[in-house]
Amino acid sequence: MSDELKHHLQQHLLFARLTPAQLDRAAQRARLLKLDEGQPLFAQGDPADRFFYVVSGQIKLSRLSPEGNEKVIDIVSAGNTFAEALMFLEGPAYPVNATALVPSELVSIDSRDFAAMLRDSIDTCFLLMGDMSQRLRGLIAEIDNLSLQSGTCRVASYLLKMAPEDEDQFRLDIPKGVMASRLSVKPETFSRILRNLQDSGILSIKGAQVTIHDRDALEDRAEGLT
Amino acid sequence: MSDELKHHLQQHLLFARLTPAQLDRAAQRARLLKLDEGQPLFAQGDPADRFFYVVSGQIKLSRLSPEGNEKVIDIVSAGNTFAEALMFLEGPAYPVNATALVPSELVSIDSRDFAAMLRDSIDTCFLLMGDMSQRLRGLIAEIDNLSLQSGTCRVASYLLKMAPEDEDQFRLDIPKGVMASRLSVKPETFSRILRNLQDSGILSIKGAQVTIHDRDALEDRAEGLT
DNA sequence: ACGCCACCTTGATATTCATCAAGCGGCATC
DNA sequence: GATGCCGCTTGATGAATATCAAGGTGGCGT
Asked: Are A50 and A110 in contact (CB under 8 A)?
């Protein structure tokens, strides 16, 4: 049982530099959990004493406005961790809601315990700092996107990011409504933007199936050149 | 000379847990620099091999869109560091522009050197991780603000954050145009929002001098209750 | 004190996007 | 196969904010 956990954890960079003894200890304190589709993991404001590694599935991180509007901050997919940066705060509370988009398996790790172990693994500290650094860069890019770019730009660049390099055809792996919120547009607007891109002959969409016809034009849209 | 630098650095948490020898070494490799009003420090995309501590003045961090629009990400004031999180990235490039808003003094520190020193000061690692953690939380709050709140909300909460707890009168310490960009509204819109708040009797503004008449009402606006 | 310049304000208009309301279509259930 | 639900789409309208275009206004140097 603990072996299965170890096996999972070893997949992730954060655990790569631990000694076997440390990994054992981490695995002993870790728990495997399964979530159904739509099942919440934690809510914004809950005390944050654990962080998570996604073995399989997709976890939606979102925030709720007082009026009840939801903004999806990110979708975490298999092989990634989340909430690990909270380990270092004083009275840590999760700043977001976490919900499974599809049936998912997670490993949950005790933050305090892991932090204690970090003191004996400076290499892991550095890995973790690199990780946080990238997240910071990502969030700054996100803010840039939100304040400097139109909805169309955001949709276009997201599609480009989703699309495999060498293949013009692919499937959207998350519901359009969720994707819309991720990009900070309403579902209606998202739909219209996609329609617009189709009418311009840049791509076509059938359900979740996307076919890009003119990648260059799509890149232009992503840059904001009408 | 190096003593002056040491004195400055000791003010900041990041250097609090270094041994005297480590602090000496950091100070030797550090440089003091002065910027005139409006003088750029680095540009978005420049190779990022140093980070900075603000001794006095204000540094504006901003991003530029392809069309030339500027979005102010943050204003760093005396006693704070910035760009330290880039230390852990591979081919680090500054993700923002940095410019002095007023004549400023900075200490610049060699990232690679400091990172090397970090290996011998796990305590400092933890301080740094706490620091990054807070920044992450701040950026998430920022994204929340941008996508879930109106311009008026953002202005109202910013004013509340600026205002001293116990005093209803204070001065805006940065130009309104810069503040507008910080809050992701155009200067015209910013001006109109302020006018609106004045017309509602919530506050009055004369130049940079702000007087809050009804703090409760301002808090309501900040929450989005019209 | 004068004039200049940068910053801010104000007004009129245009654009983007949200909201409201309705219809469509697939998919699961019965 | 009918029923109903949910997610998506489409249309019509409205609100928030940007843009364009003129004025203020204050600070600063001469």
From this structure: yes
Separation between Cα atoms, residue B167 and residue B51, nearest integer Å:
35
For residues B48-68, give the mean pLDDT: 95
Interface of A with B in 123-142 (CB under 8 A): 125-126, 128-130, 132-137, 139-142
Q: Which residue has the tokens 């007082």?
A: A66
**pLDDT band, residue B90 (cuts 50/70/90):** confident
Which residues, in sequence order, are CB contacts of B207 under 8 Å at separation 6+?
A: none
Q: Is the sign of the CA dihedral B59, A136, A93, A40 positive or negative? A: positive
- Per-residue CA distances from B40 to B29, B62, B63, B175 (Å): 22, 11, 13, 17
The tens digit of pLDDT for each residue in A79-95 reads: 999 999 999 998 899 99
Best mutation target, A97, A136, A189, A221, to test chain B (most B CBs within 10 A): A136
Give B-chain residues touching A84 at CB under 8 angstroms.
none
pLDDT score, position B1: 57
C-alpha torsion angle, residues B173, B177, B179, B185 (rounded to 10): 160
Domains of chain A: 2-140 (2.60.120.10), 148-223 (1.10.10.10)
Give Rg (Cα) of chain A. Answer: 20
Strand partners, A75: A60
Write out pLDDT tens, residues B159-175.
999 999 888 999 999 99
pTM score, whole prediction:
0.94
